[in-house]
Structures are given as C-alpha cells and as structure tokens.
Amino acid sequence: MGGPDEGRGGRAGGGPADAELMIAEARKAFFVMFGFLVIVWLVQLVNSADHYALSRDYGVVSGDVTTLPDVLTAPLLHWSWDHIESNSGPLFVFGFLAAYRGVARFLGLSLLVALSSGLVVWFFEQGNTDTVGASGLVFGYFGYVVVRGIFDRHLIDTLIGVVMAASFAYLLTVAVPGTPGVSWLGHLGGLIGGLLGAWLFRDRRPSGSGGGTAALAPRAPRPGADNPRADLHKELGDLGLL
C-alpha cells in the first residue's frame, strides 16, 4: 500500500497517527500471543513431567459438574507433544489476526470461545472422555477472523477473512462428526463462539439517521471539509482502514 504522500496534491501528511495506532495494536497482539504460547508450553513441560496429571485433573468431562470450571483451564492443556505442536502454529496465526484490532476485545473473545467450546463438550460429548487442548480456541479465532470484516465493514479485514477461509477451509473437516481421535464437538463449539464473537464485538458505528439512539462506541470526528487531510481520511475510511 502506498504511503500517505501518494496521490493527488493536498493529501500529504494525512493518516500517520492512524497507521501508527494500527502498528502499535499489531505489536501488542504479537506479544500477547507470544506470551500466551510461552505459558501454554510451560504448562506442557510441567504436565508432561507429571505424566499428564494436569490434563486428567483439569480437563472437561461431559456431564461431570465438578469439571465445569475446567472449561477455562482445558485450553491450556494437552495430551502429548504432538498435540501441542499441531495446535501452536494455527493458534499463533489466528490469534494474532484476531487480536491486532484490539487486545481488550480479543481477551473478551477468548473467554467467549473457551466457554462455548467447553460447554458444547460438557453437554454433548459421549462417554467418560476427558477433553483438553487449544484447538477450540483455534477454531474460534478462525471463525472470528473469517467473518469479522463483514460485521465491522472493514474491507481489509474482509479480504483477510476470504484468504484465511480459502487457505484453511480444510480445518472444517475436523469440526464434523466422525473424525477419529479429536473432539470435533470442541472444535464446533469454538467455531460457534468465534462467529458469535464477531457479531458481539463488532464495531458499532453511528447509524447516521436523525433521532436515533446514540452509538455505543462513536468514532472520532472526521476532519472538516476545509482540512487538507479530509480527502485522505475519507478514502481510508472507505477502505475500512479507519
């Protein structure tokens, strides 16, 4: 994408603050996901050293009321090194893409996805199965990233969603019944939570109609028509970058 000085005259100097804000949010998202992965791997070290006692004690077991609080701990636990390795890459990629528009919103999304994934397992999983793993979060972040741009009306996020959907559509094959060795219900529950989160945490813009209720999160006022940055601000807004 071209710099702010490109284009017709009178637009130079517009938008650097917005670009810097996006970069700052992306930097925070990177460190949040890096820190989260460090925690998950440290837990795995302790867990494997204790013969996966943490997974047995803090996983979600369908119908067992005592394991309901464990819907929040199960995403941090795994059953093997192969298990955590297969989750770590997608977790970082989708988590970063979900977080770069705002870390606070991302934390709310993570809580929602953990709850939806864990509760679907708790209600519908068959047998005395102890379910753990971050794959529910992976599917939640995936679903969120794919549809977020539609709800937020951000062109860039919509394009990212299309690319992610096309590149990782195969993930949906392990969110359907009959997949051996995985908790497809946990995947499906996470996906549902991510799609719901995209709507719940969407940008709420002013409706623009007279007499309507005040917006929940109004955006900063646009520059006046006589401001040299007005045209650039409008174009960036139309592209979904503001």
Automatic annotation (TrEMBL):
InterPro entries: Peptidase_S54_rhomboid_dom, Rhomboid-like_sf, Rhomboid_protease_S54
Primary localization: membrane
Membrane topology (UniProt): Multi-pass membrane protein
Residue ranges of domain Peptidase S54 rhomboid in the record: 71-202
Intracellular or extracellular location(s): Membrane
Bias-annotated ranges (Low complexity): 214-225
One of the GO biological process terms: proteolysis
Cellular component aspect of the GO annotation: membrane
Pfam families from the UniProt entry: Rhomboid
Keywords: Hydrolase, Membrane, Protease, Transmembrane, Transmembrane helix
Transmembrane segments: 29-46, 106-125, 131-151, 158-176, 182-201
Disordered: annotated segments: 210-232
GO MF entries: serine-type endopeptidase activity
Source superkingdom: Bacteria
Protein name (database record): Rhomboid family intramembrane serine protease
Organism: Streptomyces populi
Organism lineage string: Bacteria, Bacillati, Actinomycetota, Actinomycetes, Kitasatosporales
